[in-house]
Amino acid sequence: MNADEHNEPSGARRPTANDGPFTLTVDGEVFAAKLRPEEPGACDYDWVSGPNKGYGFSSFQWVAYPSIQDRAGSPSALEPITVDEHRESIRDFLSQINPETGYLGG
User: Fold this and answer.
1) Which of 7, 17, 8 is nearest to 80 (CA)?
2) Phi, psi dihedral angles at 60 (to 5 degrees)
3) Residue 20 near residue 33, CB atoms below 8 Å
4) Using an 8 Å Cβ cutoff, are 15 and 35 in contact?
5) DSSP characters for the chain?
6) Which one, of 35, 36, 10, 12, lies nearest residue 24 by Cα?
7) pLDDT tens, position by position, 15-29
8) Could you read off the pLDDT of 30-61 as tens digits, one per residue?
9) Which residues of 48-74 are buried (b: 16+ CB within 10 A; e: fewer)?
């Protein structure tokens, strides 16, 4: 799949797990993103155009609560991140890839 084969969501959009998987192109690389419905703030990215089939990464959004009572009072405190923030996570992942192996690290 290349960048011309899919429609990408706009940068300010905040996709949710209910929207289903979506595809993003970052620096010429194509990724399929899937938000986990059972884990708000968690997303799995499959590097579709990468050199290693099935390779990708996951990201997690965390919220710090001052107390357990504050956490109990706001179960939906995680606002879905924007498409542009998903792109930034992908860009960070790509910056760590060894160009010779296509995997993370040196």
Assistant:
1) 17
2) -135, 140
3) no
4) yes
5) --GGGSPPPPTT----GGG--EEEEETTEEEEEEE-TTSTTEEEEEETTSSSTT-EEEEE-----SSHHHHHH-TT--PPPPHHHHHHHHHHHHHTB-TTTSSB--
6) 10
7) 999 999 999 999 999
8) 999 999 998 888 999 999 999 999 999 999 98
9) bebeeeeebbebeeeeeeeeeeeeeee
- Determine contact, residues 85/11, Cβ cutoff 8 Å: no
What's the chain's length in residues?
106
Residue 83: phi and psi, rounded to 5, are -60, -40
